[in-house]
Amino acid sequence: MNVRKWINDLLVNVRRVKRRLLLTTQWLVWVVVVSGCSVFMAAKQPEKKDIELLKEGVTRTQLISEFGAPVMSEYKDGKRFEIFKFIQGYSTGTKAGRAFLHGAANVATLGLWELVGTPTEIAFSGNDMAFQVEYDENDVVNEITIIKKE
Predict the structure, then answer these.
(1) pLDDT tens for residues 93-126?
(2) 42 Cβ contact partners less than 8 Å away, ≥ 6 residues apart
(3) Single pTM value for the model
(4) 24 CB contacts (<8 Å, ≥6 apart)?
(5) For residues 106 and 116, what is the distance between their CA atoms, to the nearest angstrom?
């Protein structure tokens, strides 16, 4: 009878170890899946645009190369007017630093940082900006009007 009890106890202990191993594996998989969302979001934030180009004397080509195609372009009284809209993002160093901090916080908290980090990255995803540009006959900026700057 002693041998049977010993074998029975051994089987119970093996089941406990298997259950703990399964729960630990599930926890680690969850941490790996969840962690990295804020890291990825920080790394993929929009790039910082050079708004110093928004001044008189800059060519239309320079503006398009920095801000992309205008969302609206029309002629009024023989002058070209365009509206540029974009999201002012962050420098490469800022994005890399934020991603590193999120990664370190994820490791230190076993993934729980995502409860804070992901909403933070959603909230700080750049600022919407819009400018109206008036050009002269040579497509050089005459005047810049801020429409939206957050």
Answers:
(1) 999 999 999 988 888 888 888 888 988 888 888 9
(2) 95, 98, 99, 102, 121
(3) 0.68
(4) none
(5) 10
